[in-house]
Amino acid sequence: MGVEPIPLSAFDDGAVARTAGDAIERARRAVGVRRTALFWLDATRGRLTCVATAGVGDRDRWVGQTLAAGLGMAGRAVREGHPVWTPDLLADPQVPIAPWLRDRLQAEGLTVVAAVPISLDGETRGALGFLDGPGRQYDHEGLLQIARLADKLAAELVRGGSSRRCG
């Protein structure tokens, strides 16, 4: 039996929202980055929406913001289907970014960005971003680590979604 899709609205409040928030904070701490951000795919609109973030600063300047398909590292991870990273998203000519994201990165001193797709039942549903200041590097093992964290997040979201439907 397949996994029922988790709608964008499930992240507004309740079990899925709490599960996502707790999971991305644990992921942030595990990797040691300044911010994590979970983007959820609205395939009908071709957009990724930031549904949760963890880190210092104003979460309201992140949550609810959208990226057109293919923008930013989250868009690239969704498009390519594997973990990706750049040492300086603000200067990377191969990765276009939305104006709101550029503003956030500059305001928070974030340049290094890695992202990994979130898959449920074999379909990409979003991306988890790991954002940090200059100097961080991701090798093969580092990318595998964030991929495992994304898989763990996906499993937790499924459980949180199940409790939302059952409770």
Task: Spell out the blueprint of helices and strands.
Blueprint: H1 15-31, E1 35-42, E2 47-55, E3 66-68, H2 72-80, E4 84-86, H3 99-108, E5 112-120, E6 123-132, H4 140-166
Antiparallel strand pairs: 1-2, 1-6, 2-3, 4-5, 5-6
Description:
By secondary structure, the protein is α+β, with helices and mostly antiparallel strands. The protein has a single domain (8-166), classed as GAF domain (Beta-Lactamase, 2-Layer Sandwich), CATH 3.30.450.40. 38% of the residues lie in helices and 25% in strands. It has helices at 15-31, 72-80, 99-108, 140-166, and strands spanning 35-42, 47-55, 66-68, 84-86, 112-120, 123-132. A six-stranded antiparallel β-sheet has the order 3-2-1-6-5-4, sandwiched between helices. Helix 1 (15-31) packs antiparallel against helix 4. Mean pLDDT is 91; it is low at 163-167.
